[in-house]
Amino acid sequence: MEDHESQRKVRILCLHGFRTSGEILKQLVLRWPEPVLQKLELVFLDGPFPAQGRSDVEGIFDPPYFEWFQANEEFTEYTNFEECLAYIEDYMLKNGPFDGFLSFSQGAILAAALPGMQAQGVALGKVDKIKFLIEISGAKFGENRFGMPKLASNAFSKPIDCPSLHFIGEKDFMKAESIALLEAFQDPVVIHHPRGHTVPKLDDYSLEIMVNFIDTIQRMI
After folding, report:
1. Strand 164-169, strand 132-136: pairing
2. Contacts of 219 by beta carbon, 8 Å cutoff, 6+ apart
3. What is the pLDDT of residue 1?
4. Are 43 and 12 within 8 A, CB to CB?
5. What is the model's pLDDT at position 2?
6. What is the CA radius of gyration of the chain?
7. What dihedral do alpha carbons 145, 65, 90, 213 form, nearest 10°?
C-alpha cells in the first residue's frame, strides 16, 4: 500500500485529432483498462480553432469540433502554428505542471515536434521539460506527406532524447508515417494494433507494454 501511494499519478495533457475534440479523445481513451487509467491523470484540451470545414467524425461523435492549426492541401504551408504553440504553453502555465503528452493524429504530429522545439528554445520555453510522449497515429513534420512549419524546421535535427510510446495501426493510412517517426526518437517503444486510424482498445499484450512504459515514467518523475 505504502509503495503504491508514494507513486503519484502521471499528469498528461492530451491533444486530439483533426476536427475532433478533447471530449471525443476522452471517450476513446477511457475505454482503456483500469490498470493503465489508475496510474494517469488525464487532461483533455480542445484545439484553439473551431473546425474550418467538415469533420470525418460527423454522425459518429457529437460536435463541437476543433483543430490545432491549418495547412494547405499539400501540407507545405501552415497557418496559425505559432498561435497554437502559444495557446498550449499558456494552458500549461495556468493548469500545469504536466509530465508529458498523449496525442492522436494531428495532435500527435504536433506533439512529436514539441520536445525538439523546446530543446532549441523556440517553443514551450516557460514550462517544464517534456518528460515523455504517447503518440497514437503520429507522424513527423518534413516526412513524405507533411511539410515543415518554419518553427519546427530543426525539431528533428538530432535524435530526440525523450521516452516515447507509439501506437501503430496495421490498417492506418498513416502507418508509413508513424513508422518513419520512430527513427526520430532515441528509444521508442511500440504497440502494434490491427485497427485503422483510431485510438485502439488495449489487448493483454498492449496493456503489458503500456503499464511497463508508465511504470518507467513514474520512477522517473
Report:
1. parallel
2. none
3. 39
4. yes
5. 41
6. 16
7. -60
> Rounded to whole angstroms, what are the CA distances from 77 to 61, 140, 216?
29, 15, 38
Q: Report the first-to-last Cα separation within the chain, whole angstroms.
A: 19
Contact 196, 172 (CB under 8 A): yes
Containing 103, the helix (H) or strand (E) segment is strand 100-104
Are 36 and 12 within 8 A, CB to CB?
Answer: no
**Residue where the block lists cell 485502439:** 200
Asked if 109 and 156 touch (Cβ cutoff 8 Å), the reply is no
DSSP 185: B
Place of cell 503518440: 135
The number of helix segments (H) and strand segments (E) in the chain equals: 7, 10
Taking the CA atoms of residue 92, residue 47, residue 142 and residue 155 in that order, the dihedral angle to the nearest 10 degrees is -10
Q: Of 163, 172, 199, 217, nearest to 22 (Cα)?
A: 199
Averages of pLDDT over each 10 residues, the chain, 221 residues: 66 98 98 96 98 96 97 90 98 98 98 97 96 97 86 94 98 96 97 97 96 96 91
Give the Cα separation of 128 and 181 in Å (integer). Answer: 24
What type of residue sits at position 16? H
HSE-up of residue 70 (Cα within 13 Å, Cβ side): 8
The pLDDT value given to residue 145: 77
The pLDDT, as a whole number, for residue 6 is 64
* Three-class DSSP category at 131: coil
| Rounded CA separation 207/32 (Å) | 9
Answer positive or negative: Cα dihedral of 32, 205, 131, 18. Answer: negative
